[in-house]
Amino acid sequence: MNISILVPENSVMQAVADPQYLFSAVNQFMAMAGKKPLFNVQLVGLKKEVKINGGSFSVNTAQLLKDVKQTDLIIIPALFGDMKTAIASNKKALPWINEQYKKGAEVASLCVGAFLLASTGLLNGKKCSTHWGFQNEFRELFPEVELIDGSIVTEENRLYSSGGAMSYWNLLLYLVEKYTDRQTAILASKYFAIDIDRESQSAFAMFKGQKNHTDEAVKQAQEFIDHHIPEKITIDELANLVSLGRRSFERRFKVATNNSVLEYINRVKIEFAKRSFEISRKNINEVMYDVGYTDTKAFRTIFKKITGLTPVEYRNKYNKMSVQE
Description:
Helices cover 45% and strands 13% of the residues. It is built from 14 helices and eleven strands. A seven-stranded mixed β-sheet has the order 5-2-1-6-7-11-10, with helices on both faces. It has a two-stranded antiparallel ribbon with strand order 3-4. A two-stranded parallel sheet has the order 8-9. A hairpin with a 4-residue loop joins β3 (49-52) and β4 (57-60).
């Protein structure tokens, strides 16, 4: 099986080296088990020497794209720096990716490598994952792609994508299992100390407030929410605050933030609760009351829906000084 690891300009060094390391290691595992190595792994690119990590490193490719006539899997590493700049510097690689896909190749993007994959147009109308911190920018650039919030691995029609940063290891293990077997994937996960079945990046996400828009009325409402976390805020109250009818306010809020008003309020409250669990010794009920919830079950349900963890699990994971309940 031929695996072509694309080395884009302005890519992340680790996201180029790690897949090569993993699939080469799997070949060694198979050889040790008396099996024939499966993967032929090559670094490919538009040039023989490619500058990556903002020019801090350079990578020598084994083949130029024009010489790769057919491959089975293309891996697109995470991009580095400004996404629009990174996409522009790799435009010439897009026709090759499209051509190989039409010939039957599968394509996998790692983290924000999804921006380059989406630029091919192959993801239009399909599902995709990327780093939680780049989701708003991704939606702005690629509105025709269905971005799945918090997902670690997304697969549709021979196209794969992964969540943020080191989440790409889960996609790589997913591919190892697909092309070999579960036992080999588990061996690889143990060797590289990766949790093989992690499905969500929600626990690692930080809610940034989604204020990168130009609707001043919505921004005013967001500021009010941000500064009144313990209070019970109604949609009617916010609509009156910004002198809009409720229906118009809700529509504009959704367009500007990609969240409903209630979703936004809950995410702000839960983000505050997360910070409190990380740095204080407060128990679950104290934090719950601090952010304006009075129903323990409701708080737990909303917290887990947003973070993927219960409040106790989150506190124990990120606060080593926490008092066990």
